[in-house]
Amino acid sequence: MARQSGPIKMAVVGLGRAGWDIHVRAIRGRKDFQLVEVVDLEKSRLEEARAEFGCRTFTDFKQFLRESRAELIVVATQSKDHAPMSIAALATGKHVLTEKPMAVSLRETDRVLAAAKKSKGLFTIHQNARLAADLLHIKAVMKSGVLGDIFMIKRGQYSYGRRGDWQVLRKYGGGNLLNNGVHAVDQVLQLLDSPVAAVFGDLQCVLNPGDTEDHLKVVIRAESGMVADVEVSTAVAIAPYAWVLMGSRGTLISDGETSRLRYHTQKLPRLQPVDKHLVPSRAYDRLDTIEFKQEEMPSSAPSKRNFYDYLYDSIRKGKPLLVTPESVRHTMYVLQQARKGTPFT
What we know:
Elements: E1 8-13, H1 17-27, E2 33-39, H2 43-53, E3 56-58, H3 61-67, E4 72-75, H4 79-90, E5 95-99, H5 106-118, E6 123-126, H6 133-144, E7 150-158, H7 176-189, E8 196-204, E9 215-222, E10 227-233, E11 243-247, E12 250-254, E13 258-263, E14 293-298, H8 307-317, H9 325-339
Parallel strand pairs: 1-2, 1-4, 2-3, 4-5, 5-6, 7-10
Antiparallel strand pairs: 7-11, 8-9, 9-10, 11-12, 12-13, 13-14
């Protein structure tokens, strides 16, 4: 698609929580994006959008695609519709932003990628948690080297409560793995230092009605040996942590608000084990006296730019996408592997 000038004319498909409260809210008041069209099955939602933005409204998605004057289409419908609607939108040659998850399976993911390669427009996915302040903080700590070589990353998101909407039904693409797990897994994949070598998953339904998981654990081992442990649950009443970094010089533990670091800066001498069949003192033979430093700091390194700032630069200035579809395929691959051997395969 040839680059245009002026504000990016945008259409939002689906005016639920994500479409209205995330995407419409994100561009409300901006001068570089203009909401010109919306699509939804609920007429009251269409009327609300028309009253505020004066935009065109549609209840039929196919009619919308035939008549749309938008430059960018945002797909924010139920998860099961993300892939087919993205493919149809890409076929028009327009730019497409799809809400997470980009699909409900790896097979669907590859179909969308194939459509994106044929399209004249840009295609990206709203994995906006890559700009989360706590993730940027964790990245900064890792880059600083204060903890030495990181060998284990833990990511936890916990709450306790039940829900009964479409997100608890597989036929709509529901479940905690595709809803919240997709963000947490995507975040840790930004931190691993090499490609994924192995994945283990445990998915359980503890509290919710329906046929999807509300508690999940995904363990990822990179080819380098670094391990990431992701736990996302709406069935845990006390949150043990939000982030843990384990390094060769120390450890970070964060509750999402405050990070506590304990580390040392000593250069430890190279040692050899004592090859004897007994310990004379009948005690552990501690080889070093290590003096640790302790720090507390906010678990936050806010980005000066948001997802739509980056998206504008990609569409108008030709800059690289913040979230490439190829990078999200890695996330979708891990999610698929995590389902194996569980009741939610």
